[in-house]
Protein backbone atom coordinates (compact mmCIF):
# COMPACT_ATOMS: atom_id res chain seq x y z
CA UNK A 1 0.00 0.00 0.00
CA UNK A 2 2.77 2.45 0.95
CA UNK A 3 4.65 1.68 -2.28
CA UNK A 4 1.50 2.40 -4.35
CA UNK A 5 0.85 5.62 -2.43
CA UNK A 6 4.47 6.67 -2.95
CA UNK A 7 4.18 5.94 -6.69
CA UNK A 8 0.89 7.89 -7.01
CA UNK A 9 2.26 10.81 -5.01
CA UNK A 10 5.37 11.01 -7.16
CA UNK A 11 3.40 10.56 -10.40
CA UNK A 12 0.97 13.35 -9.59
CA UNK A 13 3.90 15.55 -8.61
CA UNK A 14 5.49 14.95 -12.02
CA UNK A 15 2.16 15.75 -13.71
CA UNK A 16 1.90 18.97 -11.70
CA UNK A 17 5.43 19.93 -12.78
CA UNK A 18 4.61 19.14 -16.40
CA UNK A 19 1.50 21.29 -16.16
CA UNK A 20 3.64 24.23 -15.03
CA UNK A 21 6.03 23.69 -17.95
CA UNK A 22 3.14 23.35 -20.42
CA UNK A 23 1.53 26.48 -19.00
CA UNK A 24 4.78 28.37 -19.50
CA UNK A 25 5.11 27.24 -23.13
CA UNK A 26 1.42 27.81 -23.85
CA UNK A 27 1.53 31.38 -22.51
CA UNK A 28 4.82 32.04 -24.28
CA UNK A 29 3.31 30.83 -27.57
CA UNK A 30 0.27 33.03 -26.95
CA UNK A 31 2.39 36.13 -26.28
CA UNK A 32 4.62 35.51 -29.31
CA UNK A 33 1.57 34.81 -31.45
CA UNK A 34 -0.17 37.94 -30.22
CA UNK A 35 2.71 40.43 -30.50
CA UNK A 36 4.77 38.98 -33.36
CA UNK A 37 2.16 37.41 -35.65
CA UNK A 38 -0.93 39.33 -34.43
CA UNK A 39 -2.66 35.98 -33.88
CA UNK A 40 -2.83 34.77 -30.26
CA UNK A 41 -3.36 31.13 -29.35
CA UNK A 42 -7.14 30.76 -29.01
CA UNK A 43 -8.61 30.18 -25.53
CA UNK A 44 -5.28 30.38 -23.71
CA UNK A 45 -6.81 32.00 -20.61
CA UNK A 46 -9.51 29.34 -20.40
CA UNK A 47 -7.04 26.43 -20.69
CA UNK A 48 -4.60 28.00 -18.22
CA UNK A 49 -7.29 28.71 -15.61
CA UNK A 50 -9.16 25.43 -15.96
CA UNK A 51 -6.35 22.92 -16.48
CA UNK A 52 -2.80 24.10 -15.78
CA UNK A 53 -3.52 26.11 -12.63
CA UNK A 54 -5.70 23.41 -11.09
CA UNK A 55 -3.14 20.70 -11.86
CA UNK A 56 -0.24 22.71 -10.48
CA UNK A 57 -2.05 23.37 -7.19
CA UNK A 58 -4.05 20.23 -6.42
CA UNK A 59 -2.00 17.39 -7.90
CA UNK A 60 0.99 18.24 -5.73
CA UNK A 61 -0.85 18.38 -2.38
CA UNK A 62 -0.02 14.79 -1.43
CA UNK A 63 3.69 15.41 -2.03
CA UNK A 64 3.61 18.61 0.01
CA UNK A 65 1.95 16.76 2.90
CA UNK A 66 4.24 13.73 2.60
CA UNK A 67 7.32 15.91 2.66
CA UNK A 68 5.97 18.11 5.45
CA UNK A 69 6.67 21.24 3.46
CA UNK A 70 3.39 23.09 3.80
CA UNK A 71 3.66 26.71 4.89
CA UNK A 72 3.69 27.04 8.66
CA UNK A 73 4.20 29.75 11.23
CA UNK A 74 6.56 28.62 13.97
CA UNK A 75 6.16 31.54 16.38
CA UNK A 76 4.64 29.42 19.16
CA UNK A 77 5.90 26.01 17.96
CA UNK A 78 9.56 26.91 18.39
CA UNK A 79 8.96 28.14 21.94
CA UNK A 80 7.36 25.00 23.41
CA UNK A 81 8.75 21.61 24.36
CA UNK A 82 8.84 18.45 22.23
CA UNK A 83 5.65 16.99 23.73
CA UNK A 84 3.67 20.14 22.93
CA UNK A 85 5.22 20.22 19.46
CA UNK A 86 4.03 16.65 18.80
CA UNK A 87 0.51 17.56 19.94
CA UNK A 88 0.51 20.68 17.78
CA UNK A 89 1.64 18.63 14.76
CA UNK A 90 -1.14 16.06 15.27
CA UNK A 91 -3.78 18.76 15.76
CA UNK A 92 -2.57 20.51 12.60
CA UNK A 93 -2.60 17.27 10.63
CA UNK A 94 -6.10 16.38 11.84
CA UNK A 95 -7.39 19.88 11.05
CA UNK A 96 -5.84 19.73 7.59
CA UNK A 97 -7.33 16.26 7.04
CA UNK A 98 -10.81 17.48 7.97
CA UNK A 99 -10.47 20.49 5.67
CA UNK A 100 -9.21 18.35 2.75
CA UNK A 101 -11.99 15.82 3.29
CA UNK A 102 -14.65 18.53 3.23
CA UNK A 103 -13.19 20.21 0.17
CA UNK A 104 -12.74 16.82 -1.53
CA UNK A 105 -16.35 15.84 -0.85
CA UNK A 106 -17.60 19.15 -2.23
CA UNK A 107 -15.30 19.02 -5.27
CA UNK A 108 -16.37 15.44 -6.10
CA UNK A 109 -19.97 16.63 -6.33
CA UNK A 110 -18.89 19.56 -8.53
CA UNK A 111 -16.91 17.21 -10.80
CA UNK A 112 -19.83 14.80 -11.14
CA UNK A 113 -22.22 17.62 -12.05
CA UNK A 114 -19.72 19.01 -14.57
CA UNK A 115 -19.41 15.56 -16.14
CA UNK A 116 -23.19 15.09 -16.36
CA UNK A 117 -23.68 18.37 -18.22
CA UNK A 118 -20.43 18.09 -20.24
CA UNK A 119 -19.29 21.44 -18.83
CA UNK A 120 -17.44 23.78 -21.18
CA UNK A 121 -16.24 27.36 -21.12
CA UNK A 122 -16.36 29.63 -24.09
CA UNK A 123 -13.36 31.57 -25.27
CA UNK A 124 -12.39 31.98 -28.87
CA UNK A 125 -12.84 28.21 -28.90
CA UNK A 126 -15.11 26.17 -26.66
CA UNK A 127 -13.00 24.31 -24.07
CA UNK A 128 -14.33 21.19 -22.35
CA UNK A 129 -13.47 21.57 -18.66
CA UNK A 130 -15.20 18.73 -16.84
CA UNK A 131 -12.12 16.42 -16.90
CA UNK A 132 -10.11 19.04 -14.99
CA UNK A 133 -12.74 19.10 -12.25
CA UNK A 134 -11.61 15.61 -11.20
CA UNK A 135 -8.10 16.82 -10.41
CA UNK A 136 -9.35 18.41 -7.18
CA UNK A 137 -10.90 15.33 -5.57
CA UNK A 138 -8.04 13.16 -6.86
CA UNK A 139 -5.33 15.37 -5.38
CA UNK A 140 -7.27 15.90 -2.16
CA UNK A 141 -8.02 12.18 -1.71
CA UNK A 142 -4.37 11.28 -2.10
CA UNK A 143 -3.37 14.04 0.33
CA UNK A 144 -5.93 12.63 2.81
CA UNK A 145 -4.37 9.18 2.55
CA UNK A 146 -0.93 10.67 3.17
CA UNK A 147 -2.23 12.57 6.19
CA UNK A 148 -3.91 9.47 7.62
CA UNK A 149 -0.62 7.58 7.40
CA UNK A 150 1.26 10.48 8.98
CA UNK A 151 -1.32 10.79 11.78
CA UNK A 152 -1.25 7.09 12.67
CA UNK A 153 2.28 6.02 11.67
CA UNK A 154 4.13 9.27 12.30
CA UNK A 155 7.76 9.23 11.22
CA UNK A 156 7.88 5.41 11.06
CA UNK A 157 6.77 5.52 7.42
CA UNK A 158 8.63 7.61 4.83
CA UNK A 159 6.38 8.55 1.93
CA UNK A 160 9.00 10.62 0.10
CA UNK A 161 12.74 10.71 0.16
CA UNK A 162 14.07 13.95 1.56
CA UNK A 163 17.55 15.25 0.91
CA UNK A 164 17.57 17.48 3.98
CA UNK A 165 16.07 16.90 7.37
CA UNK A 166 13.17 19.23 8.09
CA UNK A 167 10.80 19.14 11.00
CA UNK A 168 7.29 18.24 9.98
CA UNK A 169 4.29 19.97 11.48
TrEMBL record:
InterPro entries: DctQ, TRAP_DctQ. It is a multi-pass membrane protein. Residues 23-153 form the Tripartite ATP-independent periplasmic transporters DctQ component domain. Keywords: Cell inner membrane, Cell membrane, Membrane, Transmembrane, Transmembrane helix, Transport. It is found in: Cell inner membrane. GO terms for cellular component: plasma membrane. It holds the Pfam family DctQ. The keyword Cell inner membrane applies. GO terms for biological process: C4-dicarboxylate transport. The chain crosses the membrane at residues 7-29, 49-66, 87-108, 134-153. GO terms for molecular function: transmembrane transporter activity. It comes from the Bacteria. Belongs to the TRAP transporter small permease family. The complex comprises the extracytoplasmic solute receptor protein and the two transmembrane proteins. Part of the tripartite ATP-independent periplasmic (TRAP) transport system. This is TRAP transporter small permease protein.
